[in-house]
Amino acid sequence: MMYQTPVHDFEYELNKDLNFSAAHHIPNRRAGKCANIHGHTYFVNMTIAGDMLDDLGFLVNFSDVKKLIDEAFDHTLLNDHPRFLDIPPTSETLAKTIHEMVSEYLATLDNRPVCLQVFLRETPSSYVIYRPKEFRK
Ligand SMILES: Nc1nc2c(c(=O)[nH]1)N=C([C@H](O)[C@H](O)COP(=O)(O)OP(=O)(O)OP(=O)(O)O)CN2
Ligand SMILES: [Zn+2]
C-alpha cells in the first residue's frame, strides 16, 4: 500500500479510492507558478470505520461517498466552491474539506460510521494526509 492507514479499535474499516479532475490556483505571489490557474487529476483515499453495519450490510455505500465528492468538485474550479471562499484550495485544505464533507454525511447515518483519514494526492510527487486529532493513537 502506498499510504499509511490509521490504527484504531473499530471492528470494520472501509477504504474508498476515487479520482476527480479540477482546476485551482493559490492566489498569492509567494505560491509562484501555482498562482496561475492550472489543473490536476486528484487522487483521494478515504478511510471510514465503525462498529455497526446498516440493514444492507454496509458500513457506508462506496458509491455514495464517491458521488458526494465527485458532484462537489469534478471538473470545477476549486476556488469557486463555497468552502474555499475564505481559504485557498491547497492539498492540505482540500483534504480537510473532504474530511468535513464526508463526516457531515456520515453523521446522518443511523449506524454512525466515522472518517478516520483522508489521503489526497495532487501530483505524482506530492500528497497530504489529513487525520483529525480525535482519531490519532
Ligand atoms: N504544502 C503545499 N505546497 C504546495 C501546494 C499545496 O497544495 N500544498 N500546491 C502547489 C501547487 O498547487 C502545485 O500544483 C503542486 O506543486 P508541486 O508538487 O511543486 O508540483 P510539481 O509537479 O511541479 O513538483 P515536482 O517537484 O516537479 O514533481 C505547490 N506547493
Ligand atoms: Zn496545483
UniProtKB/TrEMBL annotation:
The record's free-text note on cofactor binding: Binds 1 zinc ion per subunit.
EC number annotated for this UniProt entry: 4.-.-.-
Chain positions recorded as Zn(2+) binding sites: H24, H38, H40
Broad EC category: lyase
Catalytic activity: 7,8-dihydroneopterin 3'-triphosphate + H2O = 6-carboxy-5,6,7,8-tetrahydropterin + triphosphate + acetaldehyde + 2 H(+)
Keywords: Lyase, Metal-binding, Queuosine biosynthesis, Zinc
Biochemical pathway: Purine metabolism; 7-cyano-7-deazaguanine biosynthesis
Gene3D superfamilies from the UniProt entry: 6-pyruvoyl tetrahydropterin synthase/QueD (3.30.479.10)
Cofactor needs: Zn(2+)
One GO BP annotation of this record: tRNA queuosine(34) biosynthetic process
Active-site residue list: C34, H75, E122
One of the Pfam families matching this protein, by short name: PTPS
Gene Ontology molecular-function annotations: 6-carboxytetrahydropterin synthase activity; metal ion binding
Protein family: Belongs to the PTPS family. QueD subfamily.
Name by which UniProt lists this protein: 6-carboxy-5,6,7,8-tetrahydropterin synthase
